[in-house]
Amino acid sequence: MKALFIEESKATPKVNFNPNGELFIHGRSLPEDPFGFFTPILNWIKECTCESIRLNLKLEYLNTSSSKQVYTLLCLLNENINIKSKLVIWHYEEGDDESFETGKEFESLTKIDFIFFEYAEILY
Fold first, then answer.
1. What is the CA radius of gyration of the chain?
2. What is the value of pTM for the model shown?
3. Longest dimension (CA), the chain
4. Which terminus, N or C, of the chain has the lesser number of Cβ atoms within 10 Å?
5. Would you say 21 and 55 are in contact if contact means Cβ atoms under 8 Å apart?
6. Do 59 and 23 touch, CB atoms closer than 8 A?
7. Is 18 left (phi over 0), alpha (psi -120 to 50) or beta?
8. What domain range includes position 93?
């Protein structure tokens, strides 16, 4: 299993999937072509042979089409019989109730264990 790394852009998050099962998706997700952007991510999850996955999601903004792709990613985690242990760490900005609720909805739909981590807004 090879690592997957996708550099962050203004419209897409940084993706860093390590063969040791540590997965990170951080940034804004509003790609023009969400299917095209998420295809290598979804394929990586389908082919994953890790027994344990720890997925860190820190999405400052998630549009509707990206939300559907993240849901698909979580469903694929559940379907992959190699992955015995799954944990999602859902990072959301302090006071961002919509992001928190989105994470809670994903948790209830997928039955994957989630940890919710609230972080303070960074002002520059």
1. 14
2. 0.92
3. 44
4. C
5. no
6. no
7. beta
8. 53-124
Give the H/E segment covering residue 83. none
Q: Concatenated DSSP letters for 7-42? A: ---SSS-EEEE-TTSEEEEEEEE--SSHHHHHHHHH
> Token match 């394929």: residue?
43
Does residue 80 belong to any structural domain of this protein?
yes
Four-point Cα dihedral 110, 103, 26, 23, nearest 10: -30
Contact criterion met (CB below 8 Å) for 89 and 55: yes
The total of structural domains in the chain comes to 1
**Both tokens of residue 23?**
């997965």
Q: Is residue 121 part of a domain?
A: yes
